[in-house]
UniProtKB/TrEMBL annotation:
<protein>
    <recommendedName>
        <fullName>Tetratricopeptide repeat protein</fullName>
    </recommendedName>
</protein>
<dbReference type="InterPro" id="IPR011990">
    <property type="entry name" value="TPR-like_helical_dom_sf"/>
</dbReference>
<feature type="repeat" description="TPR">
    <location>
        <begin position="291"/>
        <end position="324"/>
    </location>
</feature>
<keyword id="KW-0802">TPR repeat</keyword>
<dbReference type="InterPro" id="IPR051685">
    <property type="entry name" value="Ycf3/AcsC/BcsC/TPR_MFPF"/>
</dbReference>
<dbReference type="InterPro" id="IPR019734">
    <property type="entry name" value="TPR_rpt"/>
</dbReference>
<keyword id="KW-0677">Repeat</keyword>
<dbReference type="Pfam" id="PF00515">
    <property type="entry name" value="TPR_1"/>
</dbReference>
Amino acid sequence: MKKITTLILSVSVSFSVLAQKKELKNVEKLIKRSDFTQAAEGIKGLEPMVKDTQYESYYYFLLGKVYFGDETTKEKDYQTAAINFYKTLEVESRVGKEKYSEKAVNYLNNISDDYYKKINKFLKQEDYKKTGDLYEALYKTQPGRKDLLDLLLYCRLTSKDYSEAAKILEKSLKLLGDVSFNAVNKHTLKNNEFFKKEDRDKAVKIGTHISPSEAKVDKKVRIEYYSNLVGIYDQQENFEKEMVKLKEAKKEFPKHVPFYENYAAVIYKTGDKEAYISALEEVLELTPENKNSWYNLGVISQDLGNSEKASAAYDKVIELDPNYVNAYINKGLIIMSEEKSLIKELNANRGTKKYGVIKDRLTDMYTKSIPFFEKAYSLKKDEGVKSTLKGLYNSIGETKKAAAL
């Protein structure tokens, strides 16, 4: 009884396999007649039945042809076609039997050639929007290709599609490591770059690529990705995302000064002055001779009422660049910061003994500030500085100097 049951089971399996073959042969006939709609209907639902059978690669190959179409097909689904042609190669590589692999590779090459033909056409027209759309479609047929994603990024940036460019940059930063995994495309004989080793190895295993190699990724590549991305977020005034990326960039490249400068700049735009001071101090730790950062530290400290810190910063600017006009002007203004309160106090004490003391303090303050305004005016003949100097000269009785201006 047990033998009879086994025999019946074997016969049923044989009939199932024969049924699959018959269904697939019918699909192939429909494809030859260019009846792709009926072919798609006929092949639908067969995948579970052909899984792990001798007809699995045949199924994927036919499915690829259904979506590839022929010269009569108006809209070809290259992406789905490519996915199934790759599955054909993967299955036959796994079982060690190549029946449809060569044909599948030819179809994949035709897909790639068709894309590049259209890409070259739109490149000549400098239509980077359409070129980018084609690179995006091509990338979807060959996911994992770094070189294709870089070309897509270039097109999106050139066509000023910054939202899409930002998505690509985010993706590239996640995928790109320290090593680029390369292999030569057997069809084009050009070197292709892959983000991941497994994607490169799979391309070699299924036979579309040869001569695998690896190369260390220049850190400038990731720096450029970060720089472009933060630039886009800054343009979009998406300061929150910009700060997140700059924090990541600073952590990854702790000696790359522009990331620190950009971080300080975006903090300034948010209006957090205390945080801006901290950010500037980070910049100055890396570049202690950065006169502009010292100047900005002086300005923001002066704005927050920390005259001592501001004055020290301006002194440093002048030490680094004796011709930095605004540093002299702001240094003079710091010295004169008590002018209003002293004048108010002076007016309130007319006729008292304190009046003379206060006036001497005011005159001393004017006298100390004058050299800074004189230096600024000698470097640049500015009407505002000239007017300030005239007033100061007259206030301390130097009327001849005032008239000479």
